[in-house]
């Protein structure tokens, strides 16, 4: 089983990718709109347009902010995976997905999980932009105060979102981490940074649920 975990605060796939996370499935939700700043999603200064996810059709954006909503009754969140207002919430949602993957995975199965990272101050480690950005859909005077995000990253510091998630998979879900494989990308996108090396790879995490599993090492051996 090969999957890509995506990256927090990087892509917006549009309204069609939004869904309800957590809360009570039987709740008659009363949503409170929240606007969160996402620097990585700001439009180009030249064209004021951006490519959204894998959709190659350019579309205009209204700015760098992303709208989502919380339910004031059951605390459910309506939004898109990867655009959560905090890193902790994003990891919780990934754990929810991984929990189901483990459930349906054969005892002899293997998961290869591809997951990159981002940097604080680049739109992912944005701290708390939630104050005064919330209003109720049914009552404009009703505000819902949410706790501040636990993970506030130092600007320029790697978020380590991938390793934070994998550690919790091991500690909480009981998965076994067998390898961290480096996926080197020789044709990677150029970077404008001048005070660090360009990220030209992504880690691939090899996870299993049992000590004995199917693995064909000969199929990937490099002939000598």
TrEMBL record:
A molecular function GO annotation: N-methyltransferase activity
Keyword field contains Methyltransferase: yes
Annotated keywords: Methyltransferase, Transferase
Pfam entry (one): N6_N4_Mtase
Residue intervals of the DNA methylase N-4/N-6 domain: 79-224
GO biological process, one term: methylation
Official protein name in the record: Site-specific DNA-methyltransferase
Source organism per UniProt: Thermococcus litoralis
Lineage: Archaea, Methanobacteriati, Methanobacteriota, Thermococci, Thermococcales
